[in-house]
Amino acid sequence: MKILVFAHNHPELHPGGTETVALELSKAYREAGHEALFVGATNQLHREPHPGTSFQAISDSGDELLMWAGHFDRFNMSQVDLRAFVPDMTALLESYRPDVIHIHHLLLFGVELPVLIRRVLPDVRIVMTLHDYYAICANDGVLMQSPDEPCAALGPGGLCKCLEAAKPNDMRLRERFIKTHLGAVDQFVAPSAFLRDVYVRWGLPADKIGIIRNGRPDVEPVPGRASSDVPKRVFGFFGNLTPWKGIEVLLQAAQVLIEREVEFELRVHGGAPFQSTEFIERIETLFKATAPHVVRLGPYKPHDVPDLIGPVDWVVVPSVWWENAPLVIAEAQQHERPVIVTGVGGMAEAVRDGTDGLHIRRNDPISLAAVMKAAADDPGLYRNLAENTRRPPDVATVAKQYLELFIDQHRRVSDPAA
């Protein structure tokens, strides 16, 4: 098969989980004997446009491209530069002529992409992995009403309480606009049952959304500290530092542990790209207040994880929003590290409380501090949880599941009676 893969960025430009998963799958399709072209969207944050073309090289590889798509309406997820985007995308589709198109995100490309694909290539199969809630939520897809009740955008009419400037009619039109264009997709895939259920409640047909878990490259686990009797008091945070990822909650919990004279170390891995000045100032203050117990180690690449996770006993994922399938959880489980995680969304699905990790309440530094102290003081708890850790599927296995889905979709268009 010829497979065209779309993602809203490239891991070399932005180390996000969606981009990483998309690129890894693209490579796995090729390793399985198929032809695959990866196209990542970019904008002025990472690249300047090139005169005369929307496309740019990202590496010496001939199977990875960037498409500059810097004119984008984020509220409506709409591509507004149709005079440049449509001709260039049409030329790509007509020249490559894939059998299957695998979309991982519509940011920057625009929600119009599936309809454009269908118009140019009527018989191509379009499969879209739903990695987050951007289509539902205009507030950066965070669905932040509370962890126990659905965001107001999930209710009738898609009313939004988070964006003060968004009028009720704006939200209704946005919902109808996005759902209409998503109607061109043949099959959706969700990496978690939680995310699938959210989209079904929003109105996507349940029979069009399957579940395929995200995978990780097959690597040997990095051993933990040898002695099972040594208190496991080194905690690690991995990922971009954003308000939604709960880094402030974690640093506030560290303050509580320091005040209570708990012996621990927290190693924070990740940068804070594109964050507000106010947020940067808040976390800088917290980092200074918690040194030297908290060590800030900066941005990293996916291939750095084995070395960085070596000295870490527990991985902490204190996100305050409904995460779907955080890459960091899969990476921790890959290296048999128990995870302390907010017990909501796909996180609660990925980590079993008391079996291979521990749950905390959302946005509660006191709860997090108490769980971290209990974890630090009980080597037996660490040993039991680590032994029960479920390793994520490897990327090759996940790619095989997608390929079987692609073949099934191709068979349906070739034989509608099948």
UniProtKB/TrEMBL annotation:
<dbReference type="InterPro" id="IPR050194">
    <property type="entry name" value="Glycosyltransferase_grp1"/>
</dbReference>
<dbReference type="Pfam" id="PF13692">
    <property type="entry name" value="Glyco_trans_1_4"/>
</dbReference>
<keyword id="KW-0328">Glycosyltransferase</keyword>
<dbReference type="GO" id="GO:0016757">
    <property type="term" value="F:glycosyltransferase activity"/>
</dbReference>
<keyword id="KW-0946">Virion</keyword>
<dbReference type="InterPro" id="IPR028098">
    <property type="entry name" value="Glyco_trans_4-like_N"/>
</dbReference>
<protein>
    <submittedName>
        <fullName>Spore coat protein SA</fullName>
        <ecNumber>2.4.-.-</ecNumber>
    </submittedName>
</protein>
<dbReference type="Pfam" id="PF13439">
    <property type="entry name" value="Glyco_transf_4"/>
</dbReference>
<keyword id="KW-0167">Capsid protein</keyword>
<feature type="domain" description="Glycosyltransferase subfamily 4-like N-terminal">
    <location>
        <begin position="15"/>
        <end position="215"/>
    </location>
</feature>
<keyword id="KW-0808">Transferase</keyword>
